[in-house]
Amino acid sequence: MTIGELVEKQAQQYSDKIFLYWQDETVTYTQLNALTNKVANMLHSLGIRKGDVVSVLLPNMPEYVYLYLGIPKLGAIVGPVNALFKAREIQFVVGHSEAKVLVTIPRFMDIVSTIQKDLPCLEHVIVIDESSQEALSYHDLMEKAAATTPPTVSIDEKEDPAAILYTSGTTGFPKGVLQTHFNIKRNAQMIIDHLGVDANEDHRFMLILPLFHVNAQIVTVMSPLTLGASTILTPGFSAKTHWETVAKYRATTFSAVPTILSILLRMPHEGLDLSSIKWIICGAAPLPIEIMKAFESTFHCSVVEGYGLTEGTCASSCNPLPTETEDRRKVGSIGVALPDTKMKIVDDSGNDVPAKGTGEIICKGDNVMKGYFKNPEANAETLKDGWLYTGDLGYVDNDGFFYIVGRKKDLIIRGGENIYPREVEEVLYAYPGVTEAAVIGVFDEIYGEVPKAFIVMKEAYEASEDQILQHCLENLADFKVPQYVEFRSELPKNPTGKIMKTPLREEEAEKLQETNPSD
User: Fold this and answer.
1) What is the CATH topology of the domain spanning 342-407?
2) Alpha-carbon distance 481 to 453, whole Å?
3) Which tens digits make up the pLDDT trace of 185-203?
C-alpha cells in the first residue's frame, strides 16, 4: 500500500471523522482525500510525473499537510525545505534535489526571486494566497483541479521514494535522505504498535513542531492517519497559547523536544482543563531527569523518551508507555528498539560490543532510508549490510534499553535543531580577514548546547563580534548563528596543522565546572 492508497483507505473507513483541526477549521478524512487528489491533479497538469521532486517551503499550515500526502499520489517526491533557511541554504536544497516545482508563500518570494536564476531544474513556483508574474497561484490551480483520483501510476512502495529530506552531517552541505512509501508508513505503524495506542479511543495528536521535520511528519501526521485519529495543527510552538490550545481541542498527546517541556513548566495554566493529555513523546536531545519528573507530576501524564534520525525515517527506539499495572521505562535511556527494528552497539570495526560497553549505535529495519541522493560515498559510509550507522555513541544494558553518551559526528544539537560546524565555519571563512575558524557546541541551560565560534584574524584586519554575527545572520538560519564569538591569536593544532577542537571543548568544560563547582 502506498501513501496515497492509505489516504484513500482511511477516507473510506473514517469518512466524516475529523482528521485535521486548524484554528476554527476542520477537515474530515473524506475531505482530506479530495484535497490530496486535487494537489496531485494540479501538479500533474503542470507536467509533474513519477520521480519528480516538488519542494515545499512553508510554515505550518493545512496546505503543507495536503502537499505532503498529495504529492506521493503521483509517484512524485515531496521535498520539505527548512523554513528557517536563508537564501544560500534554500538554493542548495532545492537545486541539489533537482526540484521542478517550489511551493511557497509571499514572504519567501524575495529570497526565491534572487535564487531562481540559479536553479536550472526549477520550472514553476507556486505561491499560496497570492499570484504574481513571478509565480502561479496555488488557490487558482487548486480550484481548477479535479478532486477525483489522479492518473494511475505504478509505484513500488519499497523502492520508490515518497520524500527527500535534507539532514545535517559533519561536512559540507546537508545530505538528501530518500524515504520510500514503505519507510514512512512502516515507521508510523511501528510507533503506534510500540506505544500500544488503542484505535478505538479518541486520540488527538497536537502538532507543534515544524512540518519540515520528520518528527512532525511521522509522529503527528502519519501516525494519527494510520490510526484513524485526529491531528491538531498549530502554526508552531507557542509557549503563551500552548495549554489553552490543549484545553480547547482536548489534545491527548503531543511530541516535543526537551527545551519545550522546560519552557512549558514555567507557563501559567491555572483554570485550564488539561486532563485530556495522556502521554508525550520527547526526543531530539537528552531530557534532564529533573524536568521529566517535574513535568509528569505537574501535568499528570507520562513522558516517554525516544530516539531517531532522518535516515531512520523518524524513530528507531522509544521507552515503553506505562500502563496501569506496569512501568518499564528507564529514565535517562532512549528506550528499546521499535517493533521489527534491530539496534545494537558496535566498535570501529563493526564488531558487536558487549552489554554496557560503549560503541556506535546502528539500526536495521523497515524504517532505514533508501539512501542519500547523489551521494554514493556517504551511502557506503552510512549503510553497511542493511545496517544504518548513526554516528551516535552509546551502550545497551542487559534489558535491551539503549543510552546515548555522545556523538562520533561533530554535530551540535541546539534545542532539537541540528547544526554542523563545518557549514558555519565555511561562512566564517568567507568574512574578510578570517584566517582560522573553529565552531563547537557549548552548554546552554535552555537549548542544551549552542554554537561558539573561535576566530583568528589576519594581521591588519579587524572585526568585532557584532560584525561577525551580522555576517552569519545574513548567510545562515538564525539557529545556526554562533551564540558566542571569541577572537584568538591562534587555535590549537595537531602536528599536521589540523585545528584541534578537543582542547577547545576541554577549556569550555573547565569554565563550566568553575562556574558550577557543585556539578
Assistant:
1) Luciferase; domain 3 (2.30.38)
2) 9
3) 999 999 999 999 987 789 9
Give pTM, 2 decimals.
Answer: 0.86
Q: How far apart are CA 52 and CA 50, in angstroms?
A: 6
- The residues spanned by each domain of the chain are 29-155, 342-407, 412-515
Give Cα 374 to chain centroid, integer Å.
21
DSSP 8-state symbol, 505: H
Instruction: Give the domain 412-515 fold.
Output: GMP Synthetase; Chain A, domain 3 (3.30.300)
The fold adopted by the segment(s) 29-155 is Rossmann fold (3.40.50)
Mean pLDDT of 125-154: 91
Amino acid at 386: G
DSSP, collapsed to helix, strand or coil, labels residue 222 as helix
Average pLDDT, integer, range 382-411:
89
Cα–Cα distance for residue pair 516/501, rounded to 1 Å: 23
Nearest CA-CA partner of 50 in 71, 74, 78, 80: 74
pLDDT band with cut points at 50, 70 and 90 for residue 170: very low
Q: Tell me how crowded residue 484 is: count the other CB atoms within 10 A of its CB.
A: 14
pLDDT for residue 153 is more than 60:
yes
Residues 315, 49: Cα–Cα separation, whole Å: 30
Instruction: Determine the residue type at 1.
Output: M
Cα–Cα distance measured from residue 447 to residue 497, given in angstroms and rounded to the nearest whole number = 33
- From CA 514, how far away is CA 492, in angstroms rounded? 22
Which phi-psi region, left, alpha or beta, contains residue 284 (left: φ > 0; alpha: ψ -120 to 50)? left
Amino acid 56 reads: V
